[in-house]
Design a protein that fits this description.
The complex is a heterodimer of chains A (201) and B (480).
Chain A lengths: L16 E3 L4 E8 L5 E9 L5 E10 L4 E10 L5 E10 L4 E10 L6 E11 L5 E10 L4 E10 L3 H9 L4 H17 L4 H11 L4
Helix pairs in contact in A: 1-2, 2-3
Chain B lengths: L2 H11 L12 E3 L6 H10 L4 H15 L23 E3 L11 H9 L14 E7 L2 E5 L2 H6 L3 E4 H7 L1 H7 L10 H9 L4 E5 L8 E7 L10 E6 L4 E9 L6 E4 L2 E6 L4 E8 L11 E12 L5 E8 L4 E4 L2 E4 L5 E10 L4 E10 L5 E11 L3 E10 L7 E11 L4 E10 L5 E10 L2 H9 L4 H12 L1 H4 L4 H14 L6
Parallel strand pairs in B: 3-7, 6-8, 7-9, 8-11, 9-12, 10-13, 11-13, 12-14, 13-15, 13-16, 14-17, 15-18, 16-18, 17-19, 18-20, 19-21, 20-22, 21-23
Antiparallel strand pairs in B: 1-2, 3-4, 5-6
Helix pairs in contact in B: 2-3, 3-8, 6-7, 9-10
Classes of the chains: A alpha/beta (201), B alpha/beta (480).
């Protein structure tokens, strides 16, 4: 990869997965409360028509340290990659998300998307997100988005006016915030994940 | 030669119209960088002891520092001993008060009026800097009536030492980064501007920087102080001759915005970008930072970056006061072998602080264009809000467009949103224009101008027109 003479922190990352022509890869990461994790994933898309879907969620309510480092390297044209990482940080947890999409020269007709959304629950929690695009081909559709914020006051108010207790309203909102990721899980896993949300309050 | 031929030739050869050299007698200090050189510069400028100490302290800090290696750039090794740090046009002894007609002519040619004309609309006060010295500052008297100080930095050191001493390096400390430290050690001239309490500056203030001498670097320093409740719109422009060698430009801009004051800072950067093969050009390594110090202060950055071989620049705002706001609007165009790594930093410290970032990158040829930004929500930034949008447009398959935003949040009530897209000019858009008789080059110009409109519309009027033309010229020859 690389360009110029600058020092690239991603240069040392070796690919964990190589996805060839017409192949499809789907991965979902779940980090539950109490777990501190460093998750490094590097994926090379090397054949035309390769498709990758990467999802992740993290729930931190204590003093967890969760660090994601994701490298999506489009080496061949005509590939599609989608990434979605949603997480909630409470307590005194620290979460970092460092993601990069690289589109190599001549990897035309690439589609690459990356999203990272965070909810910060407490004063002590710290979230740092760095979604990056490094693009060397012109016929591409690439985008990334990142947000950090809080639970939606209006939505909470709405639910409370309808008799939903505050704690439950918060949990409901968090379940829905995570649902784009949890929908890729099996029924049992989704249930287990949703059960854990209450521990964040 | 027929008229048509002449126009065609002008169009194809004269891409960088500001690339001429002014033949004027100049005095230089010897090449190289050491404490003696710094003492010489300080002596030539007749500076007080404290400023010399400030320079030497910065120089010692710089010596212990290393070139930054994190930007997405192919930075050449810079031989700091091979640069002349001070070059000034010689003053004519017979007419010490007047401006050398050659210099006046130069600025006239660049479209910068050094004479105060009675113009009804669009009056701009200009501080014109030629290599290491300020040539003249216009409308000083008119401004002084309102209590506004607008002069060259060297004059400010002599006439308003208390103000300079109070604010110098208060936003960008001497050891802030490699190039800021270098600037603090060897800075020559620049503009100083102070708007007193409650005064609305009646005209736009402007600095124009011109590099002329060969083998030199330009190290100017600008300090803008807007006292409580004041307003000023400040513009900055720059050009340099075409040369095969690369020249260094390492400036520092500091802006202090007190309670309820409002500063609008606009830049059209048009340094010589080097030729089509990347030979020559200016290395534009600049530190710009403002602080919204008091409650309710507002600072807005608008920049159009079309020149320079390498641009390394992150105009930033520290939102310290409560209810302060800042915006960053940027269009960065790179063509041929140009490289740009530019963006902003928004540091939210106060409550209810707001910031907005709109960055439009356009890369063509074999250029590399990066957006790099930081949005930081401090623990006390209650209800702070940021929205960032970074779009990249690619023209041609050999260029690169990159986005490196960093978002840090330490506050549960702060909301940050970042969005970035990368795309190219679609065939459909081009086809549509062609079909209506608009040639490919013109069509690209049209589309690019539309794409950059959100930013261009923020510029003061005279600047907006110039910037639009520049966009067109910068992208010449990039289609096809």
């Amino acid at each position: 990869m690389g360009y110029g003479n600058y020092i690239d922190p991603f240069a040392a990352l070796r690919p964990d997965y190589t996805v060839g022509a017409g192949e499809k890869l789907e991965l979902t990461f779940v980090v539950l409360p109490g777990e501190s994790r460093d998750i490094d994933v590097a994926i090379d898309l090397v054949g035309e028509g390769a498709e990758v879907s990467l999802k992740g969620l993290y729930l931190c309510g204590g003093d967890e340290r969760v660090n994601f480092r994701i490298l999506m390297h489009h080496r061949a044209g005509g590939c599609v990659s989608r990434q979605l990482f949603n997480g909630i940080a409470g307590g005194t947890s620290r979460v970092t998300f460092d993601g990069r999409i690289i589109v190599a020269p001549d990897a035309q007709q690439t589609e690459a998307y990356q999203e990272n959304h965070n909810i910060v629950l407490t004063d002590g929690a710290h979230v740092e997100t760095t979604p990056q695009l490094e693009i060397y081909a012109d016929d591409v559709k690439c985008s990334h988005g990142a947000t950090t914020g809080r639970l939606d006051e209006d939505a909470l108010f709405y639910m409370r006016t309808r008799g939903v207790p505050e704690a439950e309203a918060k949990v409901l909102q968090m379940i829905s915030f995570l649902s784009p990721v949890t929908e890729s899980l099996s029924e049992a896993e989704r249930e287990r994940t949703n059960q854990k949300i209450i521990t964040l309050l | 030669m027929g008229e048509t031929d002449r126009i065609i030739q002008e169009f194809t050869s004269g891409e960088y119209k500001e690339g001429f050299v002014t033949d004027v007698e100049q005095e230089f200090v010897p090449k190289g960088l050491n404490e003696d050189i710094i003492r010489t510069i300080s002596r030539l400028k007749d500076e007080p002891e404290w400023l010399l100490e400030f320079r030497l302290d910065a120089f010692r800090k710089w010596q212990a520092m290393e070139m930054p290696r994190w930007p997405h750039l192919d930075l050449p090794e810079i031989d700091f001993q091979d640069i002349i740090y001070y070059a000034a046009p010689k003053k004519d002894k017979d007419r010490p008060k007047e401006i050398d007609p050659k210099l006046a002519e130069t600025f006239e040619k660049l479209g910068i009026p050094l004479k105060e004309r009675d113009v009804l609309a669009g009056v701009v006060a200009v501080d014109a800097v030629f290599d290491s010295v300020s040539v003249t500052t216009t409308f000083r008297k008119t401004l002084a009536e309102k209590g506004i100080i607008f002069c060259s930095f060297s004059e400010a050191v002599k006439e308003h030492p208390d103000l300079v001493r109070k604010y110098l390096a208060s936003v960008v400390p001497a050891g802030d980064n490699y190039f800021a430290a270098l600037n603090s050690a060897v800075f020559s001239d620049g503009s100083f501007c102070y708007i007193p309490k409650g005064v609305r500056c009646p005209m736009d203030l402007s600095s124009y920087f011109r590099i002329n001498a060969k083998g030199t670097g330009q190290f100017e320093r600008t300090l803008i102080v807007a006292d409580e409740g004041s307003f000023v719109s400040y513009m900055e422009g720059c050009t340099a001759p075409m040369r095969d060698e690369q020249q260094l430009h390492a400036a520092v801009v500091e802006i202090i915005v007190e309670k309820d004051a409002d500063v609008k800072y606009s830049t059209v950067q048009n340094w010589y970008p080097g030729d089509a093969d990347g030979k020559g050009g200016i290395l534009n390594l600049v530190t710009k930072r403002g602080i919204c110090k008091g409650d309710g202060a507002h600072l807005s950055w608008t920049q159009v970056e079309t020149g320079s071989a390498i641009t390394w620049k992150y105009p930033s705002t520290i939102l310290k006061g409560d209810n302060t706001a800042s915006e960053f609007y940027s269009v960065a165009v790179t063509n041929n072998c140009q490289q740009a790594d530019t963006g902003t930093k928004m540091i939210h410290i106060g409550r209810n602080t707001r910031s907005r970032i709109v960055s439009k990158g356009i890369s063509a040829g074999r250029s590399q264009n990066s957006y790099r930004g930081l949005v930081r929500m401090g623990a006390g930034a209650k209800n702070a809000r940021n929205y960032s949008q970074c779009d990249s447009l690619l023209i041609g398959s050999k260029c690169g467009a990159h986005t490196f935003p960093v978002i840090r949040s330490d506050n549960p009530t702060a909301i940050v949103e970042h969005e970035a897209t990368t795309s190219k000019i679609s065939e459909d858009q081009l086809f549509y224009c062609n079909q209506r008789g608009i040639g490919p080059e013109e069509a690209v110009g049209l589309i690019v101008n539309g794409y950059a409109r959100e930013v261009l519309s923020r510029l003061p009027m005279e600047f907006a027109v110039e910037a639009q033309k520049l966009l067109q010229v910068s992208l010449e020859g990039s289609v096809g």
